[in-house]
TrEMBL record:
Protein name (database record): Orotidine 5'-phosphate decarboxylase
One Gene Ontology MF term: orotidine-5'-phosphate decarboxylase activity
GO cellular component terms given for this protein: cytosol
InterPro entries: Aldolase_TIM, OMPdecase, OMPdecase_AS, OMPdecase_bac, OMPdeCOase_dom, RibuloseP-bd_barrel
UniProt organism field: Guptibacillus hwajinpoensis
Subunit note: Homodimer.
C-alpha cells in the first residue's frame, strides 16, 4: 500500500533534492522523478530512491513512434519503478506498444510498472486548446476522449486535472486510475498551471493520486507543507489494488 500523495522531485541540483528528502525523511513516500532530475541523474537516482524504500513514478511522458516507445519501455521497466507515463495523444498503437515493452522488460515474478497516459496537460487552458492547438472539443470532452483511448489501448489510467475526474470515472470505470497534478494549497501561486485544484476538492472529486511539487518544494518548511497536504487530502485515504 503506497501513499496516495505523489511528491514531485523537480530539482536540477542534487543538493536541493537531498535537502527536501531529508526534511520528509520519516514519511512513507511516493516520489516522482521527472525530466528535470532524470536527465541529469538518471537511473542511479531511481535506484537510490527505490533502495530507500520509496515508491517511484517515473514521469518521462514518452511520445514517439510505437517502435521507439516499445524499446524505450523495455529498458525503463528494468529500473523497477512503480508508475510510468506516456502522452495519450501518441495514439493507440503507441500506447499498446508501451505496455508490450513494459511487459517484455519486466523480469519474471516482478510486477510490471503501472502505465498511465497524459490526457491534456494541466498547464493547458480551454482557450489554448481551441486557439493554439485547434482542437474542436472542449477540455472535458477532449480529456475523456483521450482517457477512453488510453483505456482501450490497455493503459491502467490517466493523468488529468482533478476537475475532469468525475467524467473520466463515469466513462472508464472506478478502477481506472486518475493521477492529478495542478494541486495547490490555498494561497499558493498557480504559476504555469491552468487547471488547478485544492487537495480537499481533488479528493471530493474522486482523484486516486494527487501529484504535488511546488506547494511543498518551494515552501520554506517542506515538512509542514507535506503534513498540511496530507491532512487536507485525508490521512486515511488509501488506494487498494
Ligand atoms: O505527468 C505529470 O506528472 C504532469 C502532467 C500534467 O498534466 N501536469 C503536470 O504538472 N505534471 C507534473 O506534475 C508536477 C506538478 O508540479 P507543481 O505544479 O510544482 O505542483 C510537475 O512535475 C509536472 O511535470
Amino acid at each position: 500500500m503506497e501513499p496516495s500523495i505523489i511528491l514531485a522531485l523537480d530539482f536540477s541540483k542534487r543538493q536541493e533534492l537531498d535537502h527536501l528528502l531529508s526534511a520528509v525523511k520519516d514519511e512513507e513516500l511516493f516520489v516522482k522523478v521527472g525530466m528535470e532530475a532524470f536527465y541529469l541523474y538518471g537511473p542511479k537516482l531511481v535506484d537510490e530512491l527505490k533502495q530507500r524504500g520509496h515508491s517511484v513514478f517515473l514521469d518521462l511522458k514518452l511520445h514517439d513512434i510505437p517502435n521507439t516507445v516499445n524499446k524505450a519501455m523495455r529498458g525503463l521497466a528494468g529500473l523497477g519503478v512503480d508508475l510510468i507515463n506516456v502522452h495519450a495523444s501518441g495514439g493507440s498503437r503507441m500506447m499498446a506498444a508501451a505496455i508490450e515493452g513494459l511487459e517484455a522488460g519486466t523480469s519474471a515474478g516482478e510486477k510490471r510498472p503501472m502505465c498511465i497516459g497524459v490526457t491534456q496537460l494541466t498547464s493547458t487552458s480551454e482557450e489554448m486548446l481551441r486557439k493554439e492547438l485547434q482542437i474542436s472539443l472542449n477540455m472535458k470532452d477532449s480529456v475523456v476522449t483521450l482517457a477512453n483511448l488510453a483505456k482501450n489501448s490497455g493503459l491502467d489510467g490517466v493523468v488529468s486535472s482533478a476537475l475532469e475526474v468525475p467524467m473520466i470515472k463515469d466513462a472508464c470505470g472506478d478502477e481506472f486510475l486518475t493521477v492529478t497534478p495542478g494541486i495547490r494549497l490555498e494561497g499558493d501561486l498557480a504559476g504555469d498551471q491552468n487547471r488547478v485544484c485544492s487537495p480537499t476538492k481533488a479528493r471530493a472529486l474522486g482523484s486516486d493520486y494527487i501529484v504535488v511539487g511546488r506547494s511543498i518544494t518551494a515552501s520554506p518548511d517542506p515538512l509542514a507543507a507535506y503534513v498540511k497536504l496530507k491532512t487536507e487530502w485525508g490521512m486515511t485515504h488509501e488506494i487498494h489494488r
